Each structure stands twice: as structure tokens, then as C-alpha cells.
């Protein structure tokens, strides 16, 4: 079915993908203009090291990094970091709060590590929230700040009664840069560049507390076999010299540095959270008001500011709806596989304007009326 949405209803930018996410206009042109001094240059050379420092400094500013915390980075993305945690940060046993696909992947990595005890698990069904709880026999608490699969966000707060020997490790892949954070409530806050940071994947970045650095050094010295790809101590060493252990994607670092410059010059993390809050307010107000759609996450306080999920009535063909929208330049509204029954998923990262979320809802209304 071909339907032409009136031009005055369309968003200025119709990209709403949950990752890789919208890259703002002008960024690729900036890469083309600047990249001649970067692309094809060894990551041990000064131009690339300066770029790494630019990213590290931008993150330190954005998150108001306290004394002793360090910005560490390496290749492999967030899923690789799940495995790195099992090698380099868990002494014996971890606890996982699982409420979506990515928390489940983190748990699976811990379960698969034969040198670790079976993890403690606190779980919730998709659309619900699980949070960690104090348990004496674990040395790591692990959860996701934002479940990209379901659109549920969790608080980043150390479990009440947590001991000094227990680290808090938070997967912030779709949260970092778009949700509020008091970084001292975590020991490891890690993420990738392809969400709020408007870049490509393939890297992991972590904000490490002194306790996390000490734990990595302790385990590295314990005799445990750690494959070089998962050596956190080596990543820390290289990051202190503004390098990665292996060759990184320089274009990815450049795009992330550009985004960080924009974020910090536009008011920092508080301003970015204001942007995501404005967008999410529009989306959820529409989903509660429209007769044919509802928020997938029932508890308002659990609804994500950066990834919104809405459930359509059974009589609406979501695939046909998405197809018509895509023909009109409104794209990437796919739900995460296996989540919901008739769902749309909308990214609301800082680069997305709330006016475009409002236009998106108007476009959906217009198409549904004609289907």
C-alpha cells in the first residue's frame, strides 16, 4: 500500500533507530574534512592519541568524573565486555538483575565461565524491572541501566548494605549520555558509542572506580588465565597513554568526539537528560491518550527516557504500518526480537529532537486512520 504522508506532518529527521542511532547532520562531512590527518594513521601516533584523549576528556567532563576514576576503552563492544567482566572483575560469584535481553546476555556470560560459581539471579518479565539486592556471598552486582530490548530503565544505586568488597557493574550501553547518573554509585559504568554518542559500534568504554582498578590488578596477579583480548589491566595501561590495546576504528572515535563536544557545549549531562525527558514525555503522553496504542512498560517511573516501547492493538498490522512509514522516510521503528506482540520501539537519544517525536506520533495517527 502506498500512502503519501503530508509533508507538513513529517519529522525533520525520520531516523528513530535504537542503535546504531541517528548521526546528526554535518558529522560525516566533518570526518571527511578532518580525516586526512587521522585515517590510515597508526593508533600509536600522535594524531590518533590526541583523538583518544579528546574522547576521554569529553567523557570525564560529561559525567563529572571524580578523583581516582578513569576512562578506559578497548575493542569489542559491550557484549565483549560481558566476557571481560567474568575474566577480569568477578572473584568468585556475581549477582545479576535481569529484566531484558541484554541483562540475560550478561548473565549467560557469567554462567558459562567454569571458574566462577553459579550466579545469583533476580529477574523480572519483559516490561518489568528487577534490581539487585544485598547478598553476602557475591562480589559483583551487575545490571543494565537501560534495557534497550524492552524500554525499561533502572536506577544506578549501590544495593543497601553492599560491602566494600562488592563491586557494582552497570551496562549503560543505551543509557550513557541520556539518563541521569551519579557515577560514584557504580564501580564500572560501561557503554558503546552507537547510541547516545551518535557513532558506530565496535568499542567499549568504561568509567572505572579505584576499587574496580584494584580488583582488576588483584585478579590479574592471581594466576587466573585471562586471554589477552580480555585483559583489563592492559586496557587500563594503554588507556593511560591514550591508546587502545589493538587498532581501533578511528572514524568511530572521531564521530564520538564530535558528539561529546556538542553535548558538553550544549549544557552537559543535565541538558541531555532534559532533551530525552522532553522526547519521552511526548511519546508516552501520546501512547496513553491514543485509543489504539499503550505504553509497553506499565509503571511510569520505569519507562525509559531514551528507548520507548509502545504496544499496538492487535487489529493493527505493525509490519504494514512500518512499511508505509518507511516509504515516507520514517524508519527504524522495529521492536527488539521476541519483545511484545505488536510493538514499535522508538529511540529518543539526545540527538533526537522532541519536535520529531511529536511529528512521528502525528504520522502514525495519520497512517493508522487510513489503514
UniProtKB/TrEMBL annotation:
Family the entry assigns: Belongs to the class-V pyridoxal-phosphate-dependent aminotransferase family. SerC subfamily.
GO molecular function, one term: alanine-glyoxylate transaminase activity
Pathway linked to the protein: Amino-acid biosynthesis; L-serine biosynthesis; L-serine from 3-phospho-D-glycerate: step 2/3; Cofactor biosynthesis; pyridoxine 5'-phosphate biosynthesis; pyridoxine 5'-phosphate from D-erythrose 4-phosphate: step 3/5
EC numbers on record: 2.6.1.52
One GO cellular component, as annotated: cytoplasm
Catalytic activity: 4-(phosphooxy)-L-threonine + 2-oxoglutarate = (R)-3-hydroxy-2-oxo-4-phosphooxybutanoate + L-glutamate; O-phospho-L-serine + 2-oxoglutarate = 3-phosphooxypyruvate + L-glutamate
UniProt binding sites for pyridoxal 5'-phosphate: 102, 148, 171, 194, 246-247
Residues annotated to bind L-glutamate: 18, 44
Primary localization class, coarse: cytoplasm
Gene3D superfamilies: Aspartate Aminotransferase, domain 1, Type I PLP-dependent aspartate aminotransferase-like (Major domain)
Keyword annotations of the record: Amino-acid biosynthesis, Aminotransferase, Cytoplasm, Pyridoxal phosphate, Pyridoxine biosynthesis, Serine biosynthesis, Transferase
Subunit structure: Homodimer.
Boundaries of every Aminotransferase class V domain copy: 136-330
N6-(pyridoxal phosphate)lysine: residues carrying this PTM: 195
Protein name: Phosphoserine aminotransferase
